[in-house]
Amino acid sequence: MFSGGRVTLGAESEALSEIIARNHPEGLEAEGEIVGMEKDPNYKANSIHSYGAHFAEVGVDADTAEIRLRRMLASLLLAAF
């Protein structure tokens, strides 16, 4: 997991800056760019759709206000054309 500038794996945690200094003592430089979907040539050639639905049956005890999940169903459809 990466959070707060630290990399954590199980009980071990180390600052990302320490990992980079150990593996790249001369320093590390990087540049990046995120291309928006409208600039991606594959975006116009392909259509991507996703749909999802969740259904739940719950019961509520009128005397204790206890809520119970009786049944639940979730469905997801991902389609790329």
Structure keywords:
81 residues; alpha+beta; two-stranded antiparallel sheet; 5 strands
What does this structure look like?
The protein has 81 residues and is α+β, with helices and mostly antiparallel strands. The chain has one domain. 16% of the residues lie in helices and 46% in strands. The chain contains two helices and five strands; from the N terminus they run βββααββ. The strands form two sheets. Strands 1-2-3 form a three-stranded antiparallel sheet. The protein has a two-stranded antiparallel ribbon with strand order 4-5. It is flat and about 65 Å long. The two termini are 34 Å apart. The mean pLDDT is 84.
Total of DSSP H or I helical runs spanning 4+ residues: 2
Task: Count structural domains.
Answer: 1
What is the succession of H and E elements? EEEHHEE
- Average the pLDDT over all residues and give the rounded result: 84
Overall shape: it is flat
Which structural class fits the helix and strand makeup? alpha+beta
Q: What portion of residues is helical?
A: 10-25%
Computed over alpha carbons, the radius of gyration is: 24 Å
Largest sheet: 3 strands, antiparallel
Give the uncertain stretches in residue-range form.
none
